[in-house]
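Apologies for my clumsy wording, but could you write out the amino acids of a protein and the tokens describing how it folds?
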Amino acid sequence: MNSKIYEKALNEKSQSLKLLENIVNFESFSGSKESVDKLSDYLSKICESLGGSNTFHKQESFGNNLTSEFYSGDKTTLILCHMDTVWPIGTLQQRPFTVEGNIAKGPGIFDMKVGISITLEAIRILNELGIKPQNKIKILFNSDEELGSEHSMDLIKEEALKSHVTFCLESSFKGMIKTARKGVGMYHLSIDGKAAHAGSEPENGISANVELAHQILKLNSFNNSKTGTTVNIGRAEGGVVRNQVPANAEALIDLRVVTNKDAIDLDNKIKSLESVVGGSTLEITGGMNRPPMERTEKIVKLYQWAKDNVSNMDVTFKETGFPVGGGSDGNFAASTGTPVLDGLGGVGDGAHAEHEYIEIDKFHEKIAILASLISNIHKFEI
């Protein structure tokens, strides 16, 4: 069966590539509900044509989430994709979809419209081969992943709880499957001091910038290469003019941790920061956005099964061996205890970068891999 899947995926490259082009040509910036909804409408029509039963999960300010259910069975396999990209409307005119040799480019192609295309093509190929998975397959198309999935995380967790396994179609890490991801914390630090003339009465001021400098050094001390913890101050600013002791300052803080224990510990440390400069005050908001996706025994077992399942195909299938730094919706699914394989999407580079691209030959391999996994997943036992 795997040989038929693999052969069909490779023989129908042009059809798969055309679908990918169509999806890339739907600009779907996270901040544009209208554009994301246009893509979800398009995807719903494709799903319906493939036999999917669609449900729109309406949202007022963000794009509508879409779930589509295929086949039937006592157990459900959840597939996670996200429709939104970081690219503002109009980017496509500057960098249209292009193909040069084995490379395809376009805004959002790597992160993660290739993953959507892989999913839909895998189901098409199974349908046309007459292969009917014995598990129910449910695809969840998320509309706000790039914003932290704030308005979709509950839906993701709800569907993961009802599922036997979850496959996340985020792009691979240099071709490798992700069996662990770091958790992500997002914080805002606000500092209040007291303004004064910097020349005639600096002693009457309380510098928010000096306080900010102390806090940056403190936050930087939380970095730990042994545990994999990283704390980054992505933006820091304060003051208004050159000759005034600044009364206000702020910073945006990014936290990445490997384990849930570290997440609790670092979250407490950041929220317990104390002022150093007398008279200044701190306000810290935010917290953990995505919990760590730890490499549990269930995830290891799922990975080993998947690797064995595709071992007779001429494809690359190996894991990173370490928790990757970026978070995904796979983190939310894994937090429910459901085993997750992440990074089943495209091979390429340049997520959120102008040189974003995918490797076309690996695109077709990934279609064959996913089709094989979902056709045989009923054989996997936790």
Summary: The domain at 183-290 is CATH 3.30.70.360 (Alpha-Beta Plaits). The mean pLDDT is 97. The first strand starts at residue 53 and ends at 57.
